Amino acid sequence: MTATASAPTYAGDLYSDEALREPYGRYRELRELGPAVWLERHQAYAVSRYADVRAVLADADTFRSANGIALNDAANQAILGCTLASDGDLHAHLRRVVAHRMTPRALRPLQEQVTELADTLVDELVARGSFDAVADLARALPLSVVPDFIGWPVEGREHLLRWAGANFDSFGPINERARRALPQCGEMAGFGAELVRTGNVLPGSLGAGVLEARDEGLITTEQAMMLMLDYLAPSLDTTISGVGSAIWLFASFPEQWDKVRADPTLIPNAVHEVLRLESPIRAFGRVVSRDTDIDGVPVPAGSRVVVLYASANRDERRFDRPDEFDVTRSDARVQLGFGYGEHHCAGQGLARMETEALLTALARSVTRFRLGEPVRALNNLIRAFGSLPVTVEVG
Predict the structure, then answer these.
(1) For residue 166, what are the CA distances in angstroms to 37, 371, 378?
(2) Phi, psi at residue 377, to the nearest 5°?
(3) Helix (H, G, I), strand (E, B) or coil at 288
(4) Is 170 helix (H, G, I), strand (E, B) or coil?
(5) How far apart are alpha carbons 47 and 305 in whole angstroms?
(6) Domains and their CATH numbers in the chain
């Protein structure tokens, strides 16, 4: 595959260690180059401007997910047919099997449990004074909620974070991270298959509902295995990323934390602003089903497109002061960190609930976060911290 003559080109590697640590200058360069930019290194078109990203995500008939969300064939083949990597009627059917469990009404009974867990966790950490905002805070709450919600047995949960990270690493180009990840994705798939075979899931969980759908003939055994895994990695890593980024941003911009403490009703908007500025998922791919154009740039059928959510969310064409953190931003909620269109994140309600609960609990007593030395976790798709030492001041 080669670029069309009218497409601008970019020679850099968007998945190098340096690019993963400091991506935003590169994204700005892509936005300046044009609406669709040929990535020589990755043999794909990058779509980086907000309006174009939104338009691509809205047109699922032209920009297809099957065989397209990863930048390598091995990962695409491994996940073909799951909700992330399916289109049209199949995609809608698979989502219906589980989506009713993630509506605001369905999640409402979880609110009290999540709030209590967040309050207890924060009280313990604040009493300590110093802690790792990733290991002790951002990971702790999702790990106490998500596995039970999905229905995974206690045995095997020690692998969940490793498998979730590998899942996202596998979606990049075939670099060293993806090569390390693919065998671990195989382990995760094997575990999911064993759960479906044995039925060893928690009663009343999402997983139990998946098995019921399989038993009723609504889905196949293979689809049941895919659904058992589909919501695990996104429900863990994206929330962990968002909470870690929130603490980092509030430590870096304490005046924004003062605004939240003075008016806790800002917290839901603040969560959207965190996800806009530090989008947990950098990008997903698509495959073009027919000759088309992206804002005037011809893109032939069969091309791969890299949809850069993290760039769109900082597009100066859409957001005033796009690189500034502002919890009162009036249009923060239009951020694309949860996707858009038929592939929007089904689990975003739970992710927001967890993040808001933690920030609400922290806002009651913490006046300042003092940062230690942050360490980035390098992952092909997820932007997150591996470690974020903080000391809190209370008052």
Answers:
(1) 28, 28, 11
(2) -95, 115
(3) strand
(4) coil
(5) 7
(6) 9-394 (1.10.630.10)
